[in-house]
Design a protein that fits this description.
Layout: E1 9-12, E2 19-20, E3 26-27, E4 31-37, E5 47-51, H1 76-79, E6 87-88, E7 93-94, E8 99-103, H2 135-149, E9 154-160, H3 162-173, E10 178-184, H4 192-206, H5 223-237, H6 240-248, H7 266-279, H8 284-295, E11 314-320, H9 328-340, E12 344-350, H10 358-361, H11 363-374
Parallel strand pairs: 5-8, 5-9, 6-7, 9-10, 10-11, 11-12
Antiparallel strand pairs: 1-4, 2-3, 4-8
């Protein structure tokens, strides 16, 4: 059962003063976009915070046709919640029992303050002058939202991919704010391969002739660079077998790419289509800010001894055996650290041919384990 139409809300991070960033800079005006599903119970004990993936949004469930200030980036692809199959009455994240919150990251482009926003001191769009955003900045902003909502401790925090890294960061830096932690297809540090893929994407955008050092909003957008960045990343999101299968469903284009090359295979056409489609729904500067955040991600100096304040928590870690974005050994490293810290952790390997994106698509492979972990203290009103 779907939760139907929903609306994005906006929380002012600077209502009581500037929002201070890890970099030492500050934002005098800043907000984050968020959505909620379900009802917060009387003692605020049934809240679940959901961290989205790199280019996701606050719109995790239901149907939302428009978000204020997002304009043309809110394409048809964005209108149905990205985890709609998981959230709703009787679903994995049951809105009859739980109050689910999902917020767009500071620096992103789906309603939260970012490079597309107006700098209050100049009256101009920030563009490249928008300050660097650290993973801790994102966690701090969302904890501030939780305070605003009256939530002292989360029943659970959930995240997949980059969102899983942020979930783990919140759980280890602010252990008393959460009881249960669910991570899917994620890691606890940036791997060498991820750094290379991310750097290739950064260079693809920066080398676009329309990038103009990030000040492109009044001229042509750097869509070719952004599309190339997406093609670089997309091959790590879906297994090669699935990519090939999807490509076969399309007619290979023989359009010329430059003067000397024509597309020769359906897989090229498919990847180009994915890149162009993404460039219509995301902002290049926001992509660079989030990439920078990922490249500099750190949990700090974690050790089994430092995890003692987390021993009240329960953790559930999912691996996907065909994942080539976050390989299974990355999740196993998390499990080993948690076990060494005497933390209750369950480890599940999901067998799927869909690669990294399995956690977005295959509800039935995750639901029983998530529901088992969540079952407990949260009650209906």
């Amino acid at each position: 059962m779907s939760i139907g139409s929903v609306k994005t809300h906006f929380f002012d991070l600077t209502a009581t003063g500037p929002f201070h960033l890890v970099s030492g800079e500050k934002l005098d005006t800043a907000a984050i976009a968020y959505e909620t599903y379900g009802t917060l119970n009387k003692d605020a004990s049934n809240a679940i915070l959901l961290f989205h993936a790199l280019t996701g949004s606050q719109h995790a469930a239901g149907f939302n046709p428009q978000v204020s200030g997002v304009d043309d980036l809110w394409t048809e692809e964005c209108m149905t919640g990205w985890w709609d199959a998981f959230i709703g009455p009787g679903k994995t994240l049951d809105t009859e029992r739980f109050f689910i919150i999902c917020a767009n990251y500071l620096g992103s482009c789906y309603g939260s303050t970012g490079p597309m926003s107006t700098n209050p001191h100049t009256g101009q769009i920030y563009g490249h002058t928008f300050p660097r955003v650290n993973a801790l900045d994102i966690v701090h902003s969302q904890l501030q939202l939780l305070d605003h909502l009256g939530i002292e401790q989360l029943h659970a925090v959930v995240g997949g991919s980059l969102g899983g890294m942020l979930a783990l960061l919140l759980a280890t830096r602010f252990p008393q704010r959460v009881r249960k932690v669910i991570m899917m297809a994620t890691g606890m540090e940036v791997t060498v391969l991820q750094r290379i893929h991310n750097f290739e994407q950064i260079m693809a955008i920066r080398n676009d002739l329309n990038f103009n050092d990030g000040d492109y909003y009044a001229t042509a957008l750097p869509k070719e660079g952004l599309a190339l960045a997406r093609m670089i990343s997309h091959k790590t999101f879906v297994s090669l077998g699935v990519l090939e299968g999807r490509a076969r469903q399309q007619i290979a284009s023989h359009e010329l790419i430059g003067q000397f090359y024509a597309l020769s295979d359906a897989i090229e056409s498919y990847m180009l289509h994915q890149g162009i489609k993404f460039a219509e729904r995301f902002d290049a500067n926001s992509y660079l800010r989030l990439m920078d955040m990922w490249q500099h991600f750190s949990l700090g100096d974690l050790s089994p001894e430092s995890l003692a304040p987390c021993q009240h928590q329960q953790h559930l870690v999912f691996s996907i055996d065909s994942d080539v974005c976050y390989y299974p050994e990355e999740q196993w490293a998390i499990v080993q650290l948690l076990k060494a810290g005497d933390i209750n952790v369950k480890y599940i390997t999901v067998h799927s041919d869909k690669g990294h994106d399995s956690f977005l698509l295959e509800t039935e492979l995750y639901a029983p384990y998530i529901q088992f972990l969540l079952d407990g203290s949260a009650q209906k009103n």
